Amino acid sequence: MRWQDGRRSDNVEDRRGRPFSRGVVGGGISTVILVLVAMYFGVDPSVILNQVSTSSSPPSASSPAARPAEENRMAEFVSVVLADTEDTWRDLFQQGNRTYREPKLVLFTGAVQSACGTADSAVGPFYCPEDQKVYIDLGFYQELKNRFQAPGDFAQAYVIAHEVGHHVQNLLGISKKVHDARTRLGQKEGNRLSVRLELQADCFAGVWANHADKARHILESGDVEEALNAASAIGDDRLQKRSQGTVVPDAFTHGTSEQRVRWFNNGLQGGDIRQCNTFGAEQL
Fold first, then answer.
1. In which domain, by residue range, is 252 found?
2. Residues 162, 202: contact at Cβ < 8 Å?
3. Mean of all residue pLDDT scores within the chain
4. What is the b/e burial string over 179-200, where b = at least 16 CB atoms within 10 angstroms of the residue's CB?
């Protein structure tokens, strides 16, 4: 991916190495809030609860100069990708006579406090609608490479673009509609809505890639395959098979590997958000 000459975003909030106080843990109000937000976006709340530990030593603060060069390079990469999503979605919103409000992106180490509550890095990258911020521990990218076998800078960019896709859904009012509908439904039906929400965010990530490449020629040979591999690696069916040995479709919250790949590709090939209407699709 060609990114070194790209614009850097002013919306990165670097909390890496900052001493962190959990406040109330182990079932406290911050944990409850995060669990509710996780349910809002279709994430299994047990994932959150299992990751909230009862004790932790706060990380020591460190300046950028004291951090490994590769970590600083990755932070710069994230800033460029975020800036690219800003440019793309600002233009697309203007075309629809809307104003795009840029999200903040928070870099953290180990654990973080958001308006949605406390989260450990094991939760993975997430978007908090309450403060309109994307949160990511850069260590996740090593996990993406080693644990999920999805290396590559464009695979990493896809992760950011997917979370920004949730921000776009929030701005368009889609997330609220899904949340309101899920409150009236049972878990099985609510999970199905969550799958459609996540697949749409994948499609929005593809829309970003389409327009970014046309405007700034960011794609290199093999980049698309990296993103498709990442989308496939984090499908519900593969994750369930890996973690519990069986696949339970009614418990899906993000979509199968095949679905995630297909919807990202829909956005990438067409570049049109109207092709991302997962809620109107008869078959996902």
1. 12-276
2. yes
3. 86
4. beebeeeeeeebbbbbbbbbbb
Q: Please enumerate in sequence order all residues whose Cβ is within 8 A of that of 63, keeping only pairs 6 or more positions apart, or say none.
A: none
CA distances from 125 to 24, 69, 112, 140, 220 (A): 22, 22, 11, 8, 25
Report the candidate in 170, 67, 84, 190 with the shortest Cα–Cα distance to residue 127: 170
Q: Which residues pair with 128 in a beta bridge?
A: 133
State the pLDDT confidence band at 249, using cuts at 50, 70 and 90. Answer: confident
Is 34 contained in some domain?
yes
pLDDT digits (tens, 9 = 90+) for 118-134: 999 888 999 999 999 99
Total domain count, the chain: 1
Alpha-carbon distance of 136 to 142, in angstroms, equals 12
Most confident of the following: 16-20, 23-27, 28-32, 47-51:
16-20
Q: Name residues whose C-beta falls within 8 Å of residue 211's C-beta, 6 or more positions apart in sequence.
A: 88, 91, 92, 271
Residue 3 lies in a domain: no
CA-to-CA separations, 164 to 46, 99, 202, 273, 280, in angstroms, rounded: 24, 15, 10, 14, 22
* Percent of the chain whose predicted confidence (pLDDT) is above 70: 83
